[in-house]
Design brief:
The chain has a domain of 117 residues: Gcn5-related N-acetyltransferase (GNAT) (Aminopeptidase). Helix content is 28%, strand content 37%. It has 4 helices and 7 strands; from the N terminus they run βααβββαβαββ. It is an alpha+beta fold. Helix 1 packs across helix 2. The chain is globular. Strand 4, helix 3 and strand 5 form a beta-alpha-beta unit. The chain binds coenzyme A. The site of coenzyme A has 20 residues, from strand 4, helix 3 and helix 4.
Length: 169
């Protein structure tokens, strides 16, 4: 089936949070601790419009004649102080059953194009140290290693190191 991407819509909230919440409760790729409720996911979508936007990867489900959400990617502000406004941070998530199909690469390419077209100068990625899939994905899209922040987070009773990568447009 053909996978395509499009701008996020409010009614994508359930599909997005079902992908995200698996990682919240089961992994250390995100430092969120509590599954995101529907209304928070809807607020997230409302805040991810325009230049700080989000996209979804979808395929058609012929049985129900609806779209199935396979993944999403977003661009967020890097820091709130105005001097940092030319830099953004990206995020990309693919449904576990659909990983390793090239969807992450398509999503990242699209969301980086959005950031570059919006005039941002640089994009940061903050990745769980040792998370080879994400580190390799970002490296393949032109991100360079900045360094590793050691033990800056804690989840599931252990310290978490974060690998910081950056792409300058
Ligand atoms: C990281 C993630 C987005 C990758 O998405 P994906 O759709 O599985 O990746 P793709 O199939 O597009 O692969 C793109 C590239 O990523 C790398 N990659 C993907 N999976 C990999 C794996 N298991 N091991 C090593 N490298 C991997 C490869 O470089 C690959 O390029 P190649 O096919 O030329 O070798 C996906 O694993 C995911 O959503 N993980 C859970 C959420 C997460 O960790 N998000 C990132 C938070 S920083």
């Amino acid at each position: 089936m053909t996978v395509r991407t499009r701008t996020v819509r409010l009614d994508d909230a359930e599909g997005i949070r079902s992908i995200y919440n698996v990682e919240v409760v089961d992994s250390t790729v995100t430092m969120d601790m509590v599954a995101r409720p529907l209304h928070e996911q809807q607020q997230w979508i409302e805040h991810h419009q325009g230049a700080h936007g989000a996209i979804v990867a979808v395929e058609d489900d012929p049985a129900t004649r609806t779209e199935r959400i396979l993944g999403f990617a977003s661009i967020s502000p890097y820091r709130s102080r105005p001097g940092y406004s030319t830099t953004v941070e990206n995020s990309v998530y693919v449904h576990r059953a659909h990983q390793n199909r090239g969807i992450g690469r398509v999503l990242l390419d699209e969301v980086l194009a959005l950031a570059a077209d919006s005039g941002f100068h640089s994009c940061m990625a903050r990745i769980l140290a040792g998370h080879e899939a994400s580190i390799r994905l970002h490296a393949s899209r032109g991100f360079d290693l900045v360094g590793v922040e050691r033990e800056v987070a804690r989840k599931f009773n252990r310290w978490i190191d974060i690998t910081v990568m950056q792409r300058i447009f």
